[in-house]
Amino acid sequence: MDSVINKLSSDRITARQIDELVGLARGIAADGDLNQAEVKFLQKWLAANTVVSDQPVIRTLYARINEVLADGVLDDDEKVMLLETLNNFSSRDFELGEVLKSSTLPLCDPAPALQFSGRTYCFTGTFMFGQRKHCESAVLERGGQAGGLNRKTQVLVVGAYATESWKHSSFGNKILQASAWRDEGSPISIVSEAHWTAHL
Questions:
Q1: How far is CA 10 from the centre of its chain?
Q2: What's the mean pLDDT when you consider all of the chain?
Q3: Do 163 and 179 belong to one domain?
């Protein structure tokens, strides 16, 4: 009986902490901008609330914030990525912490074998592998190219963490564009992060 009471009590605390974090995320992201002090505050809050940090979405958020603050500089790419993550979280889009069900995405089926040398990659979404720049570095180290989506892009890699409502998110535009080009006959492949990492 005690274990049931402890579990219910723990669930209640977790729910309250998530509500508090949603409020924090909403407040921090409200002006559409982030600064170092806000990100550090969020990092401290997450560190102090380790019970919550066991939730997949919050673990991901905590890991992203630690990565961003590791070099002491919040650059523009990191700012955009964190804002998108906070906005998804504060709108209670909790699927962010789940690995996306690939059936909801226009991934190539069957997924093609991937090569790196001389191939051009683009990355979109939030990645388990690390920040987008880390994914791009992995491609560059293997003789490929990486950057924004354009007609020369040969592979679009979609991050494992995303929302079910990906069509309405900012990274969804890249997926829709790549999908349209593929339908027109362009040789662009759309693959999951898991498929990409399996070829590294």
A1: 27
A2: 80
A3: yes
148 in the same domain as 134: yes
At 125-182, the pLDDT tens digits run 878 888 889 999 999 999 999 999 999 999 999 987 655 556 656 667 888 899 999 9
* Residue 52 · residue 58 · CB < 8 Å: yes
- Looking at this protein, which amino acid is placed at residue 71? D
Query: How many independent structural domains does the chain possess?
Result: 2
pLDDT tens-digit readout, 92-135: 444 444 444 444 678 998 999 999 999 999 998 878 888 889 99
CATH number at residue 164: 3.40.50.10190
Same domain flag for 88 and 60: yes
Quick one: how many helices (H) and strands (E) in the chain? 7, 4
d(CA 79, CA 96): 17
CB 155 within 8 Å of CB 120: yes
The CA distance from 200 to 191, in Å, is: 14
Residue range of the domain that includes 63: 2-96
> Same structural domain for residues 85 and 167?
no
